[in-house]
């Protein structure tokens, strides 16, 4: 039996009885990479992610200063993690001090900003969070807002959400989840992945429900939920990073703006820079995934190389219908 199968089997055994009973009562399906998924509180989770979500909701003790980076998979999570980390810690690692020892140069952003449900509560019902004690603590999630808020209870944490064009997200999703890491062998065709995605069956999907949960949250409580777009970050990084810093309560000073500190952060977190680092070329994450798989093209509009006009029309219609009257344009 190969290593991957062994670890999957071990993990199956780790599902607790409570979750097994719950799963038996939930709608179930298979996502396009062949994983069993269950729909809980309107969102599709793998069984282990669901177990982690429940542990998080029950056991997480939020601090009002916590910052949570949220996204649908493949919407620019890695970039947003790097930017948020660099912004919040910029006085510690500015060029005047220790630029060459910046943690982003030796660790992948997913290690510096751990997922609540795909990392911390995935491996333990009550993970030890003491090593994240420096304030503000920075965590991330792919959960929709209502699921996240259950774990945040009534705290006043700040939540930053990154959204992306649905078609580019889908193409990126297919490359990441539906091909084998070792040889790029296709697990599920692009067409099949497209169909599942349109049915709403994707990890942490339906896409539109998740996006809308954060969009509405940002309208209701703009001081605590910031809604960002991948395309805007690419088009106007300085404006967007300023917006992010203001929201996080660490605005750039005039001196910082003039001394180029903002551009330094943009360069540090760029796809070109991060993907060229040794850690991201050859390193692996805690779950065995190659760090390099998080960095691909990073383009706006790559979907044009994959979707037929019929597919484009179908997904545009779905998005139009789901987002109508929300004020959100994707
Ligand atoms: P593509 O597959 O379209 O290239 P996530 O971080 O949520 O997994 O999203 C991955 C997507 O973001 C990939 O898109 C990847 O190339 C892109 N990406 C990763 N790091 C980036 C960065 N620093 N700047 C811009 N895009 C980045």
UniProtKB/TrEMBL annotation:
<dbReference type="InterPro" id="IPR000863">
    <property type="entry name" value="Sulfotransferase_dom"/>
</dbReference>
<keyword id="KW-0808">Transferase</keyword>
<feature type="domain" description="Sulfotransferase">
    <location>
        <begin position="64"/>
        <end position="327"/>
    </location>
</feature>
<dbReference type="InterPro" id="IPR027417">
    <property type="entry name" value="P-loop_NTPase"/>
</dbReference>
<protein>
    <recommendedName>
        <fullName>Sulfotransferase</fullName>
        <ecNumber>2.8.2.-</ecNumber>
    </recommendedName>
</protein>
<comment type="similarity">
    <text>Belongs to the sulfotransferase 1 family.</text>
</comment>
<dbReference type="Pfam" id="PF00685">
    <property type="entry name" value="Sulfotransfer_1"/>
</dbReference>
